[in-house]
Amino acid sequence: MTLPPESRTDDEVLAATDVAVLLRYGLIQDAFRTALFGDGAIAAAITLDRLGVAPRSLAFLAEVVRAGGLAYAAALPEPLPDPEAAGVLRAWLTDAAGTASTSEAETRAARWLDAVAEIIAMRRSVRR
Fold it and tell me: Is the pLDDT of residue 1 over 70?
């Protein structure tokens, strides 16, 4: 018999998760990928949801990453409409762009942004 996973509060997830580190290494190292798309995506969704980021903004940014790359997306004057949220995301993307030098890593980053957008959308639908 398997036990159900322990539940954690949003604040506990945020306290235990460094999104920037997971993004930097999860895009290029298999050992970090599960954590990036698990706790990393959840922590990023919590952070950006609290800042009021719309899922469609992240989905659009994922397309920008696919078309232009992480460095291009990080250099946008307004990667997100809200300046505070844009600053948080820009820091993550800039940090990740320094290590994600392959098209595979950049595609993975776009998929991660899509995952974060989906988590935000699910969180909002549950709260309604």
Answer: no
